[in-house]
Amino acid sequence: MFKMNSFVLFVLCVISLAVYAKANEKHVVCYYGTWAAYRNGLGKFDVDNINTDLCTHIVYTFLGINTRGTVVSLDPYLDYPENWGKDNIRKFVALKDQNPNLKLILAVGGWNEGSAKYSIMAANPKLRKNFITSAIQIIQKYGFDGLNIDWEYPNRGDSVFGQDDIDNYTQLLKELREEFDKHGLHLSAAVASVKSMASLSYDIPAISQYLDLINVMSYDMSVASGRVTGHNSPLHKGEKDVVISKENLKTVDGVLEYWLKQGCPPEKLILGLPLYGHTFKLSDPKNNGVGALSAGPGISGPYTATNGFIGFNELCVKLRKETWNIKYDNSSKVPYAVQGNNWISYDDAKSLTAKVKYALQFNIAGIMLWSIETDDFLGICQSDDYPLSRAVNIALGRSIESSSTALGTSTSNPTSSKPSTTAPIQEFICKDIGFYSNPKECSSYYYCVKSAGGNLVPKLLRCPNNLYWDQENQFCNYPDQANCYA
């Protein structure tokens, strides 16, 4: 009897530990910007590029609403199959075939949607009902696990009802929660981060009752339209910052202090971190520190093509191919780069790791990444794909596999556009860092990169279907425009 009881106790302990470990696993919420499907060359990002091992939740952005409060597609050609569309939503929800544990979330809203429509919808019981009913219909029709509300922002911007938005937003979430619980659906929200903005928009203790996760957007703390240079997402205040309380600072530590003090449960708080940077044009190249006078937005990346903004996948190539003075702010714990009158604030693996480790001391629920298509998802700059996302996973203590057992061998997601070894890369000899056409075929090309030992090593990459490598323009192009005759 004693042996049987001991065995049962042992089994129960093992089960309890397993449940505890699962319950305490940190979340990685990955936002996926669907518009990247229209980018050219190496910036083009489709569902097939998503690495499902690096996220616990993936958020499909964005759907919107119409004047009746009904959830509608903002890009039917991309989202749906009708009229020869790309059927992107169905492809997205099929990601569960690769990782059944994934939570696939539909996001409604976003910066471009503004505030007015949501202010009107949230103030009207009939429109709220239309919103909730239509959201559930789409979620269930396609197989999403839940909804992410990204109203930017209640009581701000072009809001119609001003301060009434605060209570109306809470009421909307309350009604969503009641209906979602009937169907076992997940409910989360993306929210403003720093006190000066969040305090205008949210009753934090109230909304925390109804949300499963609260994704705090801890970035864009300094933007290129500002008068001076500044960090996109500093962990701590800089040496030149005035002495004020943390919660009033535009810093990650200030954001955490404010939200937790206001009553956001740490087990629901998701800290949002950026996979992109902001670029500034210096007024005086000689005055190039943090807080230097800025003449406005700086350079754009070749894929995102927006002055003042650059994805990490664009920046890492630029930093390797060009001469930049890379500096590290020891107070704010983030890097920045200077070249002439160009100034860039960004994050690297080191700075993201520092933020994650700092946040973990508050036992928060996890990290949100905005957004995965601006990580180095092809592994152009390093031997692994998604270096920033991987760094965050590692810092959270999540077990992940390398994307390659050897340079150029993809293993973690065979359907994504990662380096391939269908041809022996040893036959190609690199003369310098950069992109080169494959003399044996037009549908693939080489990227020559320095290995850890300093040697030039070729990585074989493939163009998307029906495209050829265009050596002159340095991207995958239509065959009749690529000038390739291999």
TrEMBL record:
GO BP, one annotated term: chitin catabolic process
Highest taxon in the source lineage: Eukaryota
One term under GO cellular component: extracellular region
Chitin-binding type-2 domain ranges (all copies): 427-486
Coiled coil, from the record: none
Keyword Transferase found: no
Signal peptide positions (record): 1-23
GH18 domain segment(s): 26-399
GO MF annotations in UniProt: chitin binding; endochitinase activity
Keyword set, alphabetical order: Chitin-binding, Disulfide bond, Glycosidase, Hydrolase, Signal
PROSITE patterns reported for this sequence: CHIT_BIND_II (PS50940), GH18_1 (PS01095), GH18_2 (PS51910)
Family: Belongs to the glycosyl hydrolase 18 family. Chitinase class II subfamily.
Protein name: Probable chitinase 2
Gene of this entry: LOC113401881
